[in-house]
Amino acid sequence: MNTKKIVGAAVVGFSLLTGGILTAMSVKVIDQGHAGVVYNRSTGIEKETLGQGWHLVSPFKRVTAYPISTETVKVDKFSVQTKDGKPLTVSLSYDYMNDAEKLPKIYNKFKGQAPDVIENGWLQTRLKKATLNVFSNYSVLEVFQHQGEINGAIEKEFRKMVDTIGFLVDSVTLEAPKPDANTAKAIQGVVDAQQNLEKAEIEKKQATINAEKAIEEARGKAEANEIIKKSLTPEIVEIKKIEKWDGKLPQVSGEANPMIQVK
């Protein structure tokens, strides 16, 4: 009798333990901003995904969570080459999310890989390819003159590459490219030359303005003198002489009296 009780208690205990283990193994937590793709070992990928929260899942099913809210991913630095063959080191980051409706497709394409594996592998490769393609259309000087335009072109091409798979790219951020020492020196030389040229152009324009101003002033003075000249009649000339006379009469040498003819 005691043996039966012991055996019964053992069976019950084992059942409870097994049930507890299976229950623990069957609980899956989906974090906020994520959705879970369920893979059934007997029937394959399930169409319905799991939302955030706690879920009881059969231990014979595997759940992989993917972000469906915006995630920021930073890409390691890598080298690109410009149209004129200059090497540059670039660093980028991008914001993206997974299309919730295409999660089963993503899971199937990448054979259940975790999101970070996809980000550091397939997605990173596509972003690098888009970056290389865009930089090959610009010279090294154009890169620094049109960085915003280049950033937009990379974002557009990257989005086009990954959108159909189910990755929704929100934005791409390109940091300032870094040239090697020789390229940086060459760029600075060109920049200095351009600045000197611009300075010379400004000085030339200022000299032209000053010359035109001097010509206008000289023309104005000449015209004024011409007007005065035309306005001087013999009577006015005599009046001007009288205005300048100091009141002294002309003297003849050797005579005490001024030279005046009286008629």
TrEMBL record:
Any Pfam family matching the protein: Band_7
Record SUPFAM superfamilies: Band 7/SPFH domain
UniProt KW Coiled coil keyword: yes
GO CC annotations, alphabetized: membrane
Keywords: Coiled coil
Residue intervals of the Band domain: 28-206
Residue ranges the record marks as coiled coil: 190-217
Protein name as annotated: Band 7 domain-containing protein
Taxonomic lineage from the root: Bacteria, Bacillati, Bacillota, Bacilli, Bacillales
